[in-house]
Specification:
This protein has helices at about 5-15, 30-40, 55-60, 70-75, 100-110, 125-135, 140, 160-170, 195-200, 205-220, 225-230, 235-250, 290-300, 360-375, 390-395, and strands at about 1-5, 40-45, 80-85, 90-95, 150, 155, 175-180, 185, 220-225, 250-255, 265, 280, 320-325, 330-340, 345-350, 380. By secondary structure, the protein is α+β, with helices and mostly antiparallel strands. Strands 12-13-14-15-16 form a 5-stranded mixed sheet, with helices on one face. The protein has a 4-stranded mixed sheet with strand order 1-10-11-9. Helix 10 crosses helix 11, helix 10 (about 205-220) packs across helix 12 and helix 14 crosses helix 15. The longest helix is centred in the middle third of the chain and has 16 residues, at about 205-220.
Length: about 400
């Protein structure tokens, strides 16, 4: 059995995620497709304090790009991406629609992701018929004015909204896009998913599990069963069976990784570069850091999202991005885009233990690049964190 050092595992993981891909002066649709082939999915989240979550992993790998590329890739008759409950709510390659049929059936059997949908008789059929007649529509546009209840973390969902969510998870409706208020536009699958994708045969559950684990393994490079399970939010049993099958076929190779207590698996196409020369700010929802146990095992980086932590109890800040330099995470920075004033606000900036002396210099350069991509004119640094004095000094210099 092959043994990997922790540094080798880090380089394999970052290469698998696209941090070796050559930069394009002007990223194109081909650049975006290549990047999504590496990440597999792009998590969607409504927090917009800096930039919405699905845009950031592309920026971290491609550099400054026109976000309209993602809109074009996820709309129209030749769409390449579609939203579904993949990792969580996420853009996934449209060819995964048949692969997700087993998950859609699971939700159909459960009558919704969180609880049994209780609605007025005939509401499901009437909503589908309404969408069929009027085209892609938001829940608010379709809301029949039914009494609202306050559940699910305080959200106010009507019965219509609950049923629409269920119909989306079962595949009876699909997401055609989002409006300017970030509201989902529901439509019939045949008007969203290309016909040739809908015509493909539906894999068996075992075949689907193999395909999802195969993709997770490609995106991770090297991973434990727990890592592979998390990527597409599968069960441990389904993941373990798929891993065993892929090992038997030679697609995955059992390996040991320095410091890891659990067995790991190396994808046969994984690259082991001599070095990784990355410099990127990573969204809290980036695949490199979204599984916290893996992030700690790979980078010795303890990371928690503090968005839902009361302000007085936050350690590092509200929207904290890890700073990747080379093959290590060397710092973290709490950022906010003040769009009306066209300013990028650095709420705090901290160095990790052992961060190189040039960390502040590289971070300052990355902040300037990020502010340019966001269309902001100025960088304001607040005095919180051990990196901020150096950032301020660099700005004055």
């Amino acid at each position: 059995m092959e043994s990997l050092s922790l540094a080798q595992a880090r380089r394999i993981a970052l290469a698998a995620q696209g941090f070796l891909d050559p930069a394009h002066e002007t990223p194109t649709m081909r650049t975006l497709q290549r990047t999504v082939e590496r990440t597999g999915v792009l998590q969607v989240d409504s927090v917009n304090v800096l930039q919405r979550a699905h845009y950031m992993p592309l920026y971290s790998r491609m550099g400054s790009y026109d976000i309209d590329l993602l809109r074009r890739a996820s709309t129209g008759p030749k769409r390449r991406l579609v939203e579904y409950w993949a990792h969580v709510q996420a853009f996934m390659p449209v060819e995964l629609w048949p692969v997700m049929q087993h998950r859609m059936q699971h939700y159909r059997d459960r009558r919704g992701k969180w609880s049994i949908v209780e609605a007025e008789p005939g509401l499901e059929e009437s909503l589908v018929e309404e969408i069929k007649e009027r085209g892609a529509s938001t829940a608010r546009e379709l809301d029949a004015g039914l009494p609202r209840v306050k559940e699910h973390w305080g959200w106010n969902w009507s019965n219509a909204r609950r049923v629409l969510d269920w119909l989306y998870t079962t595949g009876d409706l699909a997401i055609a896009g989002r409006n300017s208020q970030f509201e989902v536009l529901y439509d019939l699958p045949e008007r969203v998913i290309p016909a040739e994708i809908l015509a493909r045969p539906t894999p068996t559950p075992d075949e689907a599990h193999r395909e999802l684990v195969r993709r997770a393994a490609r995106s991770h490079g090297v991973a434990t069963v727990a890592d592979l399970r998390d990527y597409y939010r599968m069960s441990v049993a389904d993941t373990a069976r798929a891993v065993a099958s892929l090992v038997e076929d030679g697609e995955l190779e059992p390996v040991t990784v320095e410091g890891w207590r659990r067995p790991a698996y190396l994808h046969r196409d994984a690259r082991l570069p001599r070095r990784v020369q990355a410099r990127a700010l990573l969204s809290p929802f980036d695949p490199v850091v979204w599984e916290r146990a893996r992030t700690e095992a790979l980078f010795d980086f303890l990371y928690r999202i503090e968005i839902y932590t009361p302000a007085a109890k936050r350690v590092h800040g509200y929207y904290v991005l890890p700073f990747l330099l080379g093959d290590r995470i060397v710092g973290r920075v709490d950022l906010k885009a003040d769009r009306p004033a066209r300013r990028l606000i650095v709420k705090s900036a901290y160095a990790e233990p052992g961060a190189p002396t040039e960390t502040a210099e590289h971070l300052r350069a990355e902040l300037e690049r990020l502010s340019g991509w966001l269309g902001l004119d100025d960088i304001v640094i607040e005095q919180r964190g051990d990196l901020t004095p150096a950032l301020v000094a660099l700005a004055r210099g």
